[in-house]
Design goal:
The protein is built from 1 helix and 20 strands. By secondary structure, the protein is mostly beta strands. The strands form 5 sheets. An 8-stranded mixed sheet has the order 13-12-11-20-15-16-17-19, with helices on one face. Strands 1-10-2-7-8-9 form a 6-stranded antiparallel sheet, with no helix packed on it. Strands 3-6 form a two-stranded antiparallel sheet. A hairpin with an 8-residue loop joins strand 8 and strand 9.
Length: 306
Amino acid sequence: MGKWVRSGLALVAVLGVFGAAASGGFTDVEPPAAPDAVEVTSRASRASSLEGTWKAAAVQAPPAPPAVQAPPAPPAEEAPPAPAPPADEAPPAKAPLAEKAPTSPAGPFLVADAIGPTVSIFSAPDVAYGDKPQLSNPTHEGLPVVFLVLEENGPWLKVRVSSRPNNLVAWVRRAEVALRTVPNRVLVEVGARRVTVFQGSEVLLQETVAVGTNRTPTPLGTFFVDGFVPLSPDTGPYGAAQVSVAGFSDVLQSFGGGVGQIAMHGTNNPDLLGQPVSNGCVRMSNDAILRMAQLAPLGTPVDIVT
């Protein structure tokens, strides 16, 4: 898996209300521009009634991660890359490149950005979620709170939340978020050691990746992009950037001061690509991760399959 990088090496952790996390924030670097196809579909109805030092989500593009003075806690990723995989983890023969998504939703996908200093979450409409029914926005790591929308129901939205347990679903009020769409989705095939970005059935990007070992496997599930950390210089084990995924290790409950969250990131050892050598993160070339950051803005679905 991987660690979230700070000025050196720290990555995105989870929403502050759900889990422990390390202190810190993002490097003060502008994130990549969102693709032209991103479209805002509605604005929150009560944005003007909220108070705080926040701003509503941008109309033309997904909100960029706010710059703060120091980046966040590491994802559950890598100690320095291993020289070679164990004998029982030898990479399989490479699979042929995919031409179309095996089961590709058409997209676009609806994303909800929190617009106030807090956002309430519910286990069902009007049923508060547990003992801590609010999320701080931005998070303690300086990340904007974002949800992948699964269902619309009048004034309510059923959403996927970046938190343990993996694939956590809750409800939020439409009035507390701004809605937009993202056009693409990401498919990670662990067995094939491959990542693909699709727009509908069209392949926009396809690269060979390194994945988790047998002992620290890359978690499977339906997740989404919830953060971006540019890295400079790009010579560390996380390469040029990290794209945080709202998924968490099934083995590592904590890692490097964070909560075991995974990411897609670059590498300083491309010879290990195609092998099961990580602590759960998905490593790719530096060119690929920078392209990924452009194609997969916050909220983009990420499916990790066998």
